[in-house]
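Input sequence (653 aa), recorded before submission:
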Amino acid sequence: MKITLKDGSVKEYEHALSVIEIASDISEGLARNACAGEIDGKVVDLRTVVDRDCNLSILTVSDPAGLSAYRHTASHILAQAVKRLYPEAKLAIGPSIENGFYYDFDIPSFSREDLDKIEAEMKKVIKEGAKIERFTLPRDEAIKFMEEKGEPYKVELIRDLPEGEEISFYRQGDFTDLCAGPHLMSTKSIKAFKLTSSSGAYWRGSEKNAMLTRVYGTAFAKKDELNEYLEYLANIKNRDHNKLGRDLELFATVDVIGQGLPLLMPKGAKIIQTLQRWIEDEEEKRGYMRTKTPLMAKKDLYVISDHWDHYKEGMFVLGDEETDEEVFALRPMTCPFQYYVYKQSQKSYRDLPCRYGETSTLFRNEDSGEMHGLTRVRQFTISEGHLIVRPDQIEEEFKGCVDLAKYCLTTLGLEGDVTYRMSKWDPENADHYMGNAQMWDEVQDMMRKILDHIGIEYTEAVGEAAFYGPKLDIQAKNVYGKEDTMITIQLDMFLAERFDMSFVDKDGTKKRPYIIHRTSLGCYERTLAWLIEKYEAAFPTWLCPEQVRVLPISEKYHEYAQKVVSQLKDNGIQATVDERAEKIGYKIREARLDKLPYMLVVGQKEEEEGVVSVRSRFNGDEGQRPLKDFIDDICREIRTKEIKKVTVTEEKK
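Predicted structure, token format:
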């Protein structure tokens, strides 16, 4: 057989060999570093036997798939250590992930001291250097094997495998786990690892299932790479909006109010207000008509929209369907309400498109295990809109929605931080969606063509569509790498029919419009979290809740400081004065810690000459300037929503 290697060279063998044997034949060093193989584009275990002509790559930690196998082996070492220390623990799953690995256990939560103890045991497992062996079992024997080991989650996984699926296991010393692989050849190959955290996670991601304990870790081939990553983790913790937002009093949560119901403090509320006014004004410029609709509705509305059947578990229902005459629910979205705004009068083809926009407060009964700061909450506000359009207007209006989203992202300095995903239906789960395959194929093809015409680079994801239409999801990651949807633009070809929406066409006949659901900025709370992490709370000046702080060097200059603040406020600048009996150096340090863009120091010379001494986080000490000149410059910066680059900061000095 002929084996074509990654560099294009060809190796010939007279008989079948495993991937690791071929690696050894190429180079003993390559074999020592091998983590997995890739045969004709498919990642395989090192133990896989090659018995035909093919293209073969030997994967090391330098390859993403090789690093994944390396970390997957580390997750098994973690599980082995936990079973040794806590024999009563039940094993769930333990995959590699983007920055490391995790393993879920049915056992009470672990403390940091527990994780340190598990790490020590993992080092013992690695030092033992057990050979890792793969074997398979028929379904019945595999189930019996795991039942005898007392592993109910593994039994459930085996039972859910399709008939005829190969059921494989990996054994390392006294530990065996159900796993598809791939894995390294020995536990001793893991050189550097760290358990980073522990948290709760529902079995299979459903709140209806048991709450498990998830242990996160990471692993690298070299200790200096691990140390570099751990330093990175320490740094991003300082950017975590959950910590930074609370430290700077932007938001808070209170147990007696409830999980996922954050309090926006005055500074955080000011940022949201600034964003909201900007978005509403921009939408009005683009032809949107503003609506204001109720926060709740009768069950009947959601039955018509089909949310009652498809989304009821995610809604807050008020009343009892069995006993109450009327049952209400807090709204999880605004679309059905705006449809009735549209239906208040018969529309002509000349009236379309109708662009409705609303700053909507919504309520979703999110799983308690998913709550996180401002990114996953139960009450939130969104820049929601619905466009009622003729079929011939779909592409132009969809492009307009994308243009608005891009404008918002660019203005906030976030456009380079997002990716685009076309979210499609899942034909294997057709009962979850309205319509049939032909209708979905038609509208998905339509969206794909529009995106291609715009020139957006996007991926496609099966099963991520809403039940009433495909969507363009604009995705962003938080500091820990978790991806969330920030902005959505969706094509809907079903709900106009359900709500009996129509327009009178040129020929006098009534026709069904299409609907585009969209957000221009998305959820304000999630956007605030994103901005906190992006800018480490040092927001662009136009967004800062406090843009200028005036610092008198002593009590004698309080009156002049107040005059300066008054002039700033008269020009729409968010300004305060620090009149505390503290030294000026202390006041400057405090202002820097509060992430302020500008400080104006005033004393005798400044008062006599009608000037201010300017300090900024952009250029440090900028010297004395006439107050009018400073006001003109900062007003321009705010008006143009400029994102200034930091050149010199006091912290760096």
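Checked by second reader. The chain is about 35% helix and 25% strand.
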